[in-house]
């Protein structure tokens, strides 16, 4: 009988093949990261057997870990440069997306508004030896200007509109991937910074939990 760890490894390979590559994610670095990160270590114990299923799962305080395909798609859209990249993530949640980014970027800065989630995620990421990650508790709608400009900014909660602070913190040629729209449903968008403006691209319809903060939704 295979050990439990082996069972998860098989499930993870299937997840990448059937949910991610089959839907068109092609970047080999993204597929490799998705094959490597043990998603079952980022979900609450009671959901462990569903860790590689094709959907989001609850992680506490009304928040979710995103569907694996969406994590892979958003990561691919960022087009993280192969060397020396610095990435900002807004909405650490479980830390799963952070771990995927940490396989592709030299440094990942991530902000979570719920202190309990940030603490858990930080512990998981360090247990996995991902020491290129910096976790902070705070309002991510304001970004993390001390380490800007970033090669990419990934927002994993839904904004009513693009937070202006983030526009100032991405480098020219860099990308911001963000769900924008109503509380119930949004469009995943990819904004690329050009010399004088941003090129804005609509990707697919999505449904994320709200981005709550000074340049996002109000709480409640
Ligand atoms: N990327 C996460 C993962 O892999 O588990 C999933 C994130 S979950 C869909 C969205 C997260 O954004 C929640 O944990 C929520 O608390 C957080 N969030 C919402 N508004 C925020 C804000 N202004 N700043 C930082 N985090 C925020």
Structure, explained:
The protein has 220 residues and is of the alpha/beta class. The chain has a domain at 58-206: Vaccinia Virus protein VP39 (Rossmann fold, 3-Layer(aba) Sandwich), CATH 3.40.50. It has six helices and nine strands. It has helices spanning 4-20, 28-36, 68-78, 96-102, 115-127, 164-167; strands at residues 57-60, 63-65, 86-90, 107-112, 133-137, 150-155, 170-181, 186-193, 198-206. Strands 5-4-3-6-7-8-9 form a seven-stranded mixed sheet, covered by helices on one side. It has a two-stranded antiparallel ribbon with strand order 1-2. Strand 4 (107-112), helix 5 (115-127) and strand 5 form a beta-alpha-beta unit. The termini are far apart. The structure holds S-adenosylmethionine. S-adenosylmethionine binds next to strand 2, helix 4 and strand 4. S-adenosylmethionine binds at residues 63-66, 90-91, 93-94, 96-97, 111-114, 117, 139-141, 156-157, 208-209, 211-213, 216.
Question: Averaged pLDDT, please?
Answer: 96
Mass-distribution shape: globular
**pLDDT < 50 stretches:** none
Give helix % range: 25-40%
Distance between the termini: 48 Å
- Architecture of the domain at 58-206, CATH level 2? 3-Layer(aba) Sandwich
- State the CATH superfamily name of the domain at 58-206: Vaccinia Virus protein VP39
Helix-strand topology string: HHEEHEHEHEEHEEE
Structural class: alpha/beta
The spatial strand order of the largest sheet comes to 5-4-3-6-7-8-9
As for the CATH topology of the domain at 58-206, it is: Rossmann fold
What molecules are bound to this protein? S-adenosylmethionine
| Number of H- or I-type helical stretches | 6
- CATH domain class of the domain at 58-206: Alpha Beta
Task: Report the sheet-strand fraction.
Answer: 25-35%
- Number of E-state strands: 9
């Amino acid at each position: 009988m295979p050990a439990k760890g082996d069972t998860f490894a098989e499930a993870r390979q299937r997840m990448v093949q059937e949910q991610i590559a089959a839907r068109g994610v092609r970047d080999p670095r993204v597929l490799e990261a998705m094959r490597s990160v043990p998603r079952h270590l980022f979900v609450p114990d009671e959901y462990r057997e569903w860790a590689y299923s094709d959907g989001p799962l609850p992680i506490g305080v009304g928040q979710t870990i995103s569907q694996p395909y969406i994590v892979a798609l958003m990561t691919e859209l960022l087009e993280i440069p192969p060397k020396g990249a610095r990435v900002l993530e807004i909405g650490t949640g479980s830390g799963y997306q952070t771990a995927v980014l940490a396989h592709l970027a030299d440094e990942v800065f991530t902000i979570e508004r719920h202190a309990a989630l940030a603490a858990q995620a930080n512990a998981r990421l360090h247990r996995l030896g991902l020491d290129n990650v910096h976790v902070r508790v705070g309002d991510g709608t304001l970004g993390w200007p001390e380490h800007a400009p970033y090669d990419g900014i990934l927002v994993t909660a839904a904004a009513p509109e693009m937070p202006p602070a983030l526009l100032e913190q991405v480098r020219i040629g860099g990308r911001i991937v963000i769900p924008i729209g109503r509380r119930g449903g949004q469009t995943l968008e990819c904004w690329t910074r050009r010399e004088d403006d941003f090129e804005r691209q609509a990707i697919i319809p999505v449904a994320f939990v709200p981005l709550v903060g000074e340049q996002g939704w109000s709480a409640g």
